[in-house]
Amino acid sequence: MISIQQPHPGFGQPVLPERFGRKVTVTHAAAIAVIALMAFAAYLTLERAIVVQRAATTAITLTDRQRMLSQRIASLTAQYALGNIGVRHDLQATIGAFETTHWSLVTGDPKAGLPSAVRDPQLKAVYFEGGAPLDAAATEFVTRARRIASLAPQDPAFAANSAPLFSAAQAPLLDALDRALAIRHNEVNAQETMLRVVAAAICLLSLVALLGAALAVFRPMARRIIRLTREANELARQATLDPLTGLLNPRSFQDRGAIEIQKARRYQRPLSLLMIDADQLNMISSTHGPDSGATVLKALTSSFFEGTRISDLLARINEDQFAILLPETSCEGAEVLAERLRRKVSEIKLTIKDEFVSCTISIGVAAAEKNASFLWPTFQRADDALSEAKVRGRNRVVVAAAA
Fold first, then answer.
1. What rounded mean pLDDT belongs to the chain?
2. In this structure, are 268 and 225 located in the same domain?
3. Which residue pairs from 199-203 have beta carbons closer than 8 angstroms and sit at least 24 positions apart in sequence?
4. Same domain, yes or no, for 215 and 305?
5. Strand duo 361-367 + 397-399: pairing
6. Which terminus of the chain has fewer Cβ atoms in its 10 Å neighbourhood, N or C?
7. 179, 209, 239 - which closes a domain
8. The model's pTM
9. Which residue, 174, 361, 385, is CA-closest to 272?
10. Which value, in Å, is the radius of gyration of the alpha carbons in the chain?
11. What's the pLDDT tens digit per position in 144-196?
């Protein structure tokens, strides 16, 4: 209880209790109003940051997909050049997916909250300015790829078009896509930093105000901040891991793989790669329902975790394809592990809608070249070995010849 003492005689006018009460009420109301405004500002700021970060994460995923599609186009072109006519349909479909993804990034997608690259000055410079703009490089890449897909491998014009395509897939196009990815990653990092700064400032100011007059206002606001921060962290996690399996996504696998290939080169240590394909996954999904495919992929992921080491890098490359990078492992050791994984998976019996479902995998094995600076040649050789395993009838391991 607040008591008001009478002032010493002769000391101005007395302070009236009613006046003091009004002052306290106004002070409390103002404090509560400030806290309410802070909470509302925090809500708007963090919600906006979540929207922006979600759009940035979508852009990162699409840009990374575009990188993988460009490499797949190059790989399918190489197979087509060797006379594998059956890949022509896949080549045309992959070209279409690459072009669609590129235009989504350039023009934006309002439904996905994806802004146009033109709205960002840095991205606009990468896509449309400078000596090697990404938009022109991608357009030329698609045009050349479509021309190749329309030619027969023995056509003299085939080699004239395929050589520039392979060159673009290895350097100019990838370099431009990497610059775009770096800008988008920086945007995500900036948003995360902003979220942390905003959250810290709001918490500090709220505590000061709450200690003064409105403790009850703090709890709901803190809960909101925590929830939004967790959502932001979850978005950051999704930018690194595959959401279904929890394995590395292609971009993260590439980044980690680049580190491992440099370590292997520096210390002259062996490094091997497994490319794994889930056999007949589409048939399982069509026979037992769409959820059955996810069940199989999760079961495969569990088997891979159980059969590998903590130091091994596991990634989901696309819908039914995985990659396992094996540091300190020779080609012979990788082959032994691949056979063990293949047998382990073939023994899996899943029950889906009261029916037993079995699955198998095909594996391509390749060892990194001595003094290799990039993982891509090993990746391509392992992928070629995987394609051979599927051609031979699946559920088998094929080792790529030494480079």
1. 81
2. no
3. 199/42, 199/46, 199/225, 199/229, 202/38, 202/42
4. no
5. parallel
6. N
7. 239
8. 0.46
9. 385
10. 29
11. 888 888 888 888 888 888 887 877 777 777 777 777 778 777 777 777 777 77
